[in-house]
Structure formats: structure tokens, C-alpha cells
Amino acid sequence: MTANPVVAVLHAETVPDTTLLAPVAEHAEIRYTDSDGLATALEGADVLFVYDFLTDALPHAWHAAESLRWVHAAAAGVDPIMFPALRDSDVIVTNSRGVFDQPIAEYVLAQILSFAKDLPESLRLQREHTWRHRESERIAGRTALVVGTGPIGRAIARLLTAVGMKVRGSGRRARDDDPDFGIVTATEDLPEELSGADFVVVAAPLTEQTRGMFDTALFRAMKPSARFVNIGRGDLVRTDNLVEALRSGEIAGAALDVVDTEPLPQEHPLWDIPNVMITPHNSGDFRGWRDALVDVFVDNFQRWRSGGELENVVDKRLGYVPST
After folding, report:
1. Which strands make up the sheet holding 92-94, listed edge to edge?
2. 182 by DSSP, 3-state: which?
3. Which residues are catalytic?
4. CA-based angle 301:304:310, to the nearest 5?
5. CB of 69 within 8 A of CB of 48?
6. What pLDDT, on the 0 to 100 scale, is given for residue 201?
7. Is the Cα dihedral 82, 85, 86, 89 positive or negative?
8. Strand, coil or helix: 60
9. Which residues form the D-isomer specific 2-hydroxyacid dehydrogenase catalytic domain (predicted)?
10. What pTM does this model have?
11. d(CA 137, CA 112)
């Protein structure tokens, strides 16, 4: 490490709490910048902290990153910042894996319970001052298939198992002794696995291999009574195919925290389809999450400064941190 490293911090409208970055400022020059000034900030910079986790500015400023050695993303998914020149370079990429695992798992459980207990209809009847007795579903004993067996998928599996659901995983490699899922089936067996799931939860990373993976064929493989929950990335799903599956009754409902165009356009048909619940990409955003992201970077910076091993190093070929 150089004696006086330069750290560029890319932010959007929200700037990270500078007091939390004080341990970095003690040992480095910090350059705060928005996307317009990124190229200038990268000149001579050793480290880039991508606090604006939805940015598309990095490829356009990459020509100025001649000294860059490490990029840290304030997100679990690194797809917004991954592009060929970065992937082919020697620059290390790390992410903020671990911050959102449990909050997202809680969100998934909440959505499953909302479907099972039909909470939207209860609220509608309450607004009408209507007392109407109804029965609801149990979730204990129901089957959840979690597509994506990384840390977020594992947190989901543990929480759903704790409330009595039968949980299976779908990942790159099949195994029958997984500590969180028990049984994990390979991606190529996904259509068969979908046919037995009551709830399908998508927690896979977005890569070139997973982009658009949920299409007409996979929706048709699901049970008509199944519900679809996506907390991964909107581009994992072919949205037109999802709309058709919901309208035709091929699946019974969807809870979408991510969509392939964010914000979702006001005229988009998903807004008005019954049994669809939409949230604005906030499933993991607990109070204090932004500060937690800074803390992860500060901890990793201290490791980097002391010559230690960085945590959450992304395999740039895979597009995510490999499981150990």
C-alpha cells in the first residue's frame, strides 16, 4: 500500500456520514464525488468506494483509473459496476455481503405470510368497514424453493425452516447435505423443482448466465397455486412473460421488490394485476443500513491498509463472492 493512498467515494444525492469515514481519513486522502466528477476523482486514486450502488458511471470514467487497485461496492450485487474492462483488469472488487441477509429474509417471510393470510384483502375490507369472515392458509408444511444459495438465500432458508416450511435450494451444484437447505438441486433441474414448490423465492445474483432465466417455460413449470417472490434483480425475469403468467393464471401471485425498470413506470401493467405486491427495491433497507454499508468499507480498508486479506472478494468471472 502507498504511504498516502487516495480513496475516491462515489455518491449520489446521499453522501455517506463523514464521521464514519474518519478512520479512513486518518490515513488517506478522501475525494467525494458524484458521477459527473468521477473521472477527475479517479486520477491517481488507489481505491474507489462505490457508495452509489446503482451507478452506471464507472465504465465512462474508467480511462482515468490508471492507479486503481481496489473497488468496493456498497451492495451485495455488483452487476451495476461490472463491465469487461474491470473484469479483465487486476483491480480487486469487493462487496458488502452480509449487511442485508437477515432483513431480506424477514421481508420474504412477511410476503409469504401476506399471501397466506391474504392481508391485502383484509385491509381492503377494513377500509370498506366490512366484517367478512374468511379462512386463510397455513405456511407450516408448505414448500419453498429458494433459487440462489448465497448468503441471502441461506438466511431466507433458515428463517423459513424455523417457521415450519419445507425448504429446498437451487444452485449451480447439486448436493444433498447442505446445512441450510438440506437438498440443493442443480440449475438444469430447475423446471422439475418448480413443479413441487408452493413459493418460489429468487435470490440469485445477476450474471450473463442468469439474466432472463425466469421465462415462459419456467412459469409454466410452476403450480397454478404457486406464488413468486423476487428479491434478487429485476433482470432475472422476463417481465412480459411474468405478466402473461399472472394474467393467464399459470401462477397465483407475485411479490416483487425488484423489476427490470426501476422505478416501475406508472403505466406498467404489473401495478394493476390482482395478487401482485410491489415494493421499491427496499427489502433489505432497515433503519441504519447506509451507515452499516460504510462500516463494512471501513473495516475492509483497515485490512487493506495493514496488508491483510480483504473480505468479500468478488470472483469477477462469476460476478459474485463464491461460497466457501
Report:
1. 29-33, 6-10, 47-50, 70-73, 92-94
2. strand
3. 233, 262, 281
4. 95
5. no
6. 99
7. positive
8. helix
9. 29-314
10. 0.95
11. 10
